[in-house]
Design goal:
The chain has six helices and 14 strands. It is an alpha+beta fold. It has a single domain, classed as Nucleoside Triphosphate Pyrophosphohydrolase, CATH 3.90.79.10. The strands form three sheets. Strands 1, 5, 8, 11, 12 and 13 form a six-stranded mixed beta sheet that branches. Strands 3-4-2-10-9 form a five-stranded mixed beta sheet. It is globular, with a radius of gyration of 18 Å.
Length: 249
């Protein structure tokens, strides 16, 4: 059954890091280790680092009436997270809440990356993104704006300083995923931006992305390879804005 999808505009994210251990990781150690060993047989480049998962969250209203998404993260091994995901999300309520750099060109087209085959999500197409980690923590606060900017630069070579960055967030809730989209618009036409990023990717044989895709209209979305939360975001964006869609993809 497909999970219901909810999308909201949020003015602020307010996340903290809590010091706690994950019951799932503590009680499924042997199964997690076995599962990870099988995964790296097929994809030896996978790295079991520490990532952050969301254990509690709530949508609240600020004094000015704007929505705020707040909550508490905890640290876990990437292998723990992947096993939990693949085992069907057992145990207490946990979510993968992450930031995505919703990259746009000067004329309004979207630029999405195709994940390289050596990554966990090889072949999938979505915006530069990543599950937050301890590099995104400052005085026990988890900063997803920093995460989005870092992922954009690491995966595409593009600095958010060169883009017009929206002030708020578009947040998509689907299943155990919370995708926080930060729109970033480059002062370049789509073809030029794609060419620059593709050239950057070609320099690194271990790049997370293999190439960029331009999406100018809903018909350009590769629905088999693009996650549902990204499709939801794109469809809403195209429905809300009068984009120049007359050029070929």
């Amino acid at each position: 059954m497909t999970s219901p999808t909810r999308i909201v505009e949020v003015a602020e994210l307010d996340f903290r890091l809590e010091r706690s251990r994950w019951t799932f990781a503590r009680t499924h150690g042997a199964a997690i280790e076995s599962h990870w060993a099988q995964l790296i047989e097929n994809k030896p480049a996978l790295f079991n680092g520490r990532i952050l998962l969301l254990g509690r969250r709530a949508l609240t209203r600020r004094a000015d009436g704007a929505l705020k998404l707040e909550g508490e993260y905890f640290a876990a091994d990437y292998a723990d997270f992947i096993a939990w995901r693949d085992f069907g999300h057992p145990g207490e309520a946990v979510e993968n809440c992450f930031a995505m750099a919703a990259l746009r060109s000067a004329e309004g087209a979207f630029l999405l990356g195709e994940m390289a085959s050596h990554t966990m999500n090889g072949g999938k197409i979505y915006f530069p993104a990543g599950t937050p980690d301890l590099n995104d923590v400052f005085d026990d606060r988890v900063d997803l704006d920093v995460s989005a900017r870092r992922e954009l630069f690491e995966e595409t070579g593009v600095s958010a300083e060169d883009a017009t960055v929206q002030s708020g967030w578009t947040v998509v809730f689907v299943g155990q995923r919370v995708a926080c989209m930060k729109e970033m618009t480059l002062p370049l036409p789509a073809e030029e931006a794609k060419a620059r990023i593709d050239a950057f990717l070609a320099l690194d044989p271990n790049a997370e992305l293999t190439r960029m895709h331009i999406v100018r209209r809903p018909g350009n979305i590769d629905r088999e390879r693009t996650p549902d939360f990204v499709v939801t975001y794109l469809e809403r964006a195209f429905a809300q804005r009068d984009l120049p869609l007359d050029r070929p993809a």
